[in-house]
Amino acid sequence: MNNPEDRARPSSRAMLLQWLGTAAGSRKWPLEPKESIVIGRDEDCDIVLDNRLVSRAHAEIFWRDGEYFIRDLGSKNGTSVNGQPLVYEKRLQDGDEVQVALRYKLAFAGEDATADLAWEGELHGISINPELRTASVNGVPVELSLRQFRLLHVLWQAGGSVVTRSQIKQAVWPEAEPDGISRQSIDALVRRMRLTLLELDASTDRIVTVRHHGYRLVGD
């Protein structure tokens, strides 16, 4: 006979995923059904985020009545869930995005998730999550249209190799007729993407034109 308490506890699938915001790369923290899981800068925290923007004890995830909740612990730079600042405690649901201070974005994967949330690494300061359609530059989230995201993603996937205009056309406008997108439309989209990236980091023009070939991403 099953123990009722076992049914109330989540499986080991419940976790936080760090998928944006640090040069250290992505990390996973499996969550245990315990009363308090503290996120903060202090080394005694359950989840340590070592950055001065993070308070020593910044936020707390806790287990109550068979579900996970989160609350801010009076941090200086705040905690938000799905873009909404935490004022009171909030129940976490699968796929929720938790932002800690201005530096870290975490994703909550609940025990009922059918698959782990996906992420990809960092290239030239650019981090991309194709499943959530999010991107950041040096840890700063960037708002992109669908076409801009597709463009950045195909350049990112090339790992610094040249991406031709034909490849960009197929990635950005997959539903269009072969001759339905002009070279001028592609170049205009690239210009807008280049300006967007420069607004976040004016020190580096990350998209360069390779004459007679296409475009590629470059680093510092």
UniProtKB/TrEMBL annotation:
The record places domain OmpR/PhoB-type at 118-219
GO terms, biological process: phosphorelay signal transduction system; regulation of DNA-templated transcription
- Pfam families xref list: FHA, Trans_reg_C
Q: Name one GO molecular function term.
A: DNA binding
Gene3D superfamilies per UniProt: 2.60.200.20, Winged helix-like DNA-binding domain superfamily/Winged helix DNA-binding domain
Keyword Lyase present in the record's keywords: the answer is no
Summarize which parts of the chain are annotated to bind DNA, as ranges: 118-219
In this chain the FHA domain maps to: 37-86
Identify the keywords attached in UniProt to this record, alphabetized.
DNA-binding
UniProt-recorded name of the protein: FHA domain-containing protein
Species for this entry: Caldilineaceae bacterium SB0662_bin_9
